[in-house]
Amino acid sequence: MAGISVTLEGDNIQLAFQKGEQSTAVVMDPHAARSLVRAVSQLLTAIGESAEEGDDMPEEMVDVTSQTIDIGMDEHGMAVVALQAGMMPPFLLRLKDDEARHIAQSLLEILNSPRDVRVSHGDH
Hints:
Blueprint (H helix, E strand, L loop, with lengths): L2 E7 L2 E8 L2 E7 L1 H17 L23 E4 L5 E5 L7 E5 L1 H16 L2 H6 L4
């Protein structure tokens, strides 16, 4: 069995593997780490592995439960959306410019379409 360790390296996450005499480490930013978690979770689901008792797997879709949704910029000028969804703790969603533009444009298209068209497309 290989040994796996996860540590913080400044603002980045280091994922290290060791098997016998060989070891490998990968340092990734938080965005890459979240992508890795989602990918591994999807692979486990695909091979029929379910979450262990007590594991909190986020719902595929959750309703926003925040009293407000705050939108601003972080210290690097990236768009940030702060909200709470379902039973999850409040969180910040940091968006690259192209991601923020895509979301804004998509929401405008949805909001500009008549309500009956939205309902016929799954209410979104």
